[in-house]
Amino acid sequence: MGGSTIRQSKQDARTHLEKSIELNPEFTEAHYRLGLLLIEKGERKRAKEYLQKALKLNPELAPAHFEMARLWHGKGNAKKAAESYQRAIDFDSNHALAHYHFALLLAGEGDIIEARNHLEKATDIEQNYSQAYYQLARLLTDPDDYDQAQQNYQMAVDIDPEFIEAHYQLGKLLAGGRRINDEGTLVVEPEYEQAGEHFAAVIALDGAHHKAHFNLGKVRAALGDFDGAQGEFEAALAIDPNHAKAHFHLALLLLADSEAEPATAGDAGR
After folding, report:
1. 173-205 pLDDT tens trace
2. Residue 187: phi, psi to the nearest 5?
3. Alpha-carbon span 179 to 258, nearest angstrom
4. pLDDT of residue 90
5. What integer pLDDT is reported at residue 266 of this predicted model?
6. CA 165, CA 214: separation in Å to the nearest integer?
7. Distance between first and last Cα of the chain
8. Distance between CA atoms of 114 and 99, rounded to whole angstroms?
9. What does each C-alpha distance from 195 to 23, 59, 138, 211 come to in angstroms?
10. Model-level pTM?
11. What is the greatest pairwise CA distance in the chain?
12. For the segment 3-16, what is each residue's pLDDT rounded down to a tens digit?
């Protein structure tokens, strides 16, 4: 269907849903479906009225609680959004989207432990939920969580090989290498080769990702590939001339290169 045909079909669907409700005001599913359609059209106030009516008719309709939660969340009402997400989960404990979006709300409110619990539940329910693995990894920031964070980022890119931010954040994690070893000691053991692969994957997907060029430059420098590092820093600056750290690291490379050059006859004795 062309765009205009789809729009007309949705308008026709709205007309029929409204007629359905007119003929049967107690038709729960019609209220719910019309609410969804109005959300899609950006008529959120009217959508809320139909969703609330659906919930009045069936208080256990988990999808309607979820859509109400999304509306409250979008308006910045964290308390009401949390209540609606919880109701959606209470009536359907396998509602992966409710767990996921509730986790994002909780993380934004600083409740990291509960956010992690809901993201873990989302990935248990929907094992190909790349965004849930990614968001869970983003919350695993303690060095003690290094391996788990790595596993979740890796799951995200295995499911979606074109997931740019997952590749980028995994690259940063590996390049940092801060973790707790088996003896319980904080160690810094960068995995530069693997990190470089992920930064390169980002660049292959988005050549204008100046941060990936910059970080790949740092990785190449750490591996002794100074020409490659210089090329990446220059690429980062070509995209973002105001990247202060790229200027700094390129300067360090150029200084190191100039100091490594052998003295000429005219320099002798100076």
Report:
1. 999 999 999 999 999 999 999 999 999 999 999
2. -130, 155
3. 36
4. 98
5. 39
6. 15
7. 79
8. 10
9. 62, 49, 16, 13
10. 0.89
11. 101
12. 556 566 878 888 99
**Those residues with Cβ within 8 angstroms of residue 232's Cβ, 6 or more apart along the chain or in another chain:** 213, 214, 216, 217, 220
Q: Which positions ≥6 away from 130 have C-beta within 8 Å?
A: 155, 156, 157, 159, 160, 163, 166
Q: Tell me what pLDDT residue 171 has.
A: 98
Position 18: which residue type?
E
The list of the chain residues with pLDDT below 70 reads: 1-8, 260-270
For residue 270, what pLDDT is reported? 29
In terms of Cα–Cα distance, which of 173, 175, 168 is closest to 151? 173
Asked whether 153 and 169 are in contact (CB, 8 A), the reply is yes
What is the per-residue pLDDT for 9? Answer: 81
SS (H, E, C) the chain: CCHHHHHHHHHHHHHHHHHHHHHCCCCHHHHHHHHHHHHHCCCHHHHHHHHHHHHHHCCCCHHHHHHHHHHHHHCCCHHHHHHHHHHHHHHCCCCHHHHHHHHHHHHHCCCHHHHHHHHHHHHHHCCCCHHHHHHHHHHCCCHHHHHHHHHHHHHHHHHCCCCHHHHHHHHHHHHHCEEECCCCCEEECCCHHHHHHHHHHHHHHCCCCHHHHHHHHHHHHHCCCHHHHHHHHHHHHHHCCCCHHHHHHHHHHHHHHHHHCCCCHHHCCC
